[in-house]
Amino acid sequence: MKLSIETFQKLTPKRWLMLGFVVVSIIFGVVLLAGLSATADRTKELPTAQVPTPSTEALLGRIQAEGIDTVVPSLSTTDIKTLVAPSQIALLNGNNVKILGSYLVEKALSSGKNPERQVASALPSASAILAMLARDRDVDDYREHATEEGAAGSYYQNVVELVPYMKPLRTTYEALFAGFAQALEAGNRCGDPIAAAEEAAGYKSGVTLPRLSSKPRESEYDYSHTFALDIFLQEVKTNPTTGLEKGPLLFSLSESIVLATSSNWRGGEELSEYRSGGITPKAGNGVILYSPNQRRFFLYFHLNDIMVQPGYLIPAGYPLGHGGNTGVNARKPGHGEHLHLEIYEASQGRFLRNYEIAEVVF
Fold first, then answer.
1. Domain total for the chain?
2. Least confident of 219-228, 271-280, 335-344
3. Exposure string (b/e) for 213-236, b if CB count within 10 Å is 16 or more?
4. Alpha-carbon torsion, ordered 109, 194, 236, 242, to 10 deg
5. Which terminal residue of the chain has fewer beta carbons within 10 Å of its beta carbon, N or C?
């Protein structure tokens, strides 16, 4: 039917009402589908029940009967990634998982595949890693944020649901990460900091080049965080159009395997303004590292950009990206110009306190 201004002018009140109902229904449907899609993107991370498929059960049976060293040469990379997925990894002990991690890298190298990509495809998501490390107080915060309508609420609800699945798997996944790192190092796959950024040649220690970051006053530690440290950055430039900051280059504190990164945070100063991306809505762009030698997780938040990728092994002093003010917390007026750093001491099952992080960094 050809529509024109005259056509609308001839509509009766009843037809105007019907037309309005149709338009509202269409709009509601689009919004509902978008919401369901966003929710699906988050909840699909949940592991299925830990009941192995017949083929996986056969592999597990062979490992138990013949031993991992006998079975692992016959496994494909797909077999290995199936065995170390969240839905199955709990059925294996840490030693077997470490061997599977090492062999995944070795098989990739021997077949001419990119081992970092193979490792990345077997890593849990950033949300799952946060769920592994979550304290009771963190879960309470996640539950509170999950009541927020929109994308932020969906994000935090997903983490809440992941906690009971992922938290018991932390030490098992640590074994997997250690296996990855061991084989990558043996294959000479540790990254070259200077090749990544010439500035890295001037790195000495800490999280930035000399004089580009400063230690907070001890009297102010607890005003910010108890189990994190906000490290203030120098030479920060602000985009006058977007308000986004770009600070100095940030560096890894330890030889680590890159577990998760995000450089696509979209949001504002409130959780209600969050749209997508980031390690979390509040953390913004960031990097999560794990050091097998130290058994520590390093979490860098609020970055402007990211220069590393999941699955890569990097040395201390490797450039991670530039400081920024992404994330709800840092986007608030006067809250930028800092790196939010957390360190999880896996051997003790706890996050380091602010003064302990300061001792590591400075």
1. 2
2. 219-228
3. beebeeeebeeebebbbbbebeeb
4. -40
5. N
Q: Which of 122, 157, 186 is where one domain is finished?
A: 186
Query: What is the rounded distance in angstroms from the CA atom of residue 180 to the CA atom of residue 76?
Result: 16
Q: What is the mean pLDDT of residues 15-27?
A: 52
Q: Backbone dihedral region of 252: left (phi > 0), alpha (psi from -120 to 50 degrees) or beta? A: beta
Domain assignment present for 8: no
pLDDT at 36 over 80: no
Which domain, by its residues, includes 173? 54-186
Return mean pLDDT, the chain. 89
**Co-location of 116 and 164 in the same domain:** yes
The CATH number of the domain where 198 resides is what? 2.70.70.10
